[in-house]
Input
Amino acid sequence: MLQLWGRSQDSAREKIELLHRQRERADLEASWLVMERFEFELRSTSGDRPGAGQGHIAEFDISVQGDSPETRHFLEGNIVQARNTVIKSLVGWDREALMTAEGKKKLRQNISDALNTWLPEGKVLDLYFVRFLFK
Output
């Protein structure tokens, strides 16, 4: 009988842990926001306009992970201001820098920092380029 009681307790603990993990996963999924279609003109490092076949416009979509569903809802509810914050962080980037993985990493960090400075509470934990191209 004691053995059966122990199994019952283990089963209950496992169910509680499973529910806790499902709740964490749901909160994580609910903290993501996709912000689509940012387009900006790239600065030329030589001062000349890019030649044929060289894009001087960058276009991308980002997916932003907030630290909570509340942060995501704030970003979503203030999407115009959030987009403006992202747009302001795009000034001055050149094509050569963004052609490298390191350049894209710096841009990601720059956008995250700008959003975190703007947010009254909560935090952007991560940001991914969903799509990134040169036109």
Remarks:
- The mean pLDDT is 84.
- The domain at 31-134 is CATH 3.30.479 (Tetrahydropterin Synthase; Chain A).
- The CA atoms of residues 58 and 134 lie 5 Å apart.
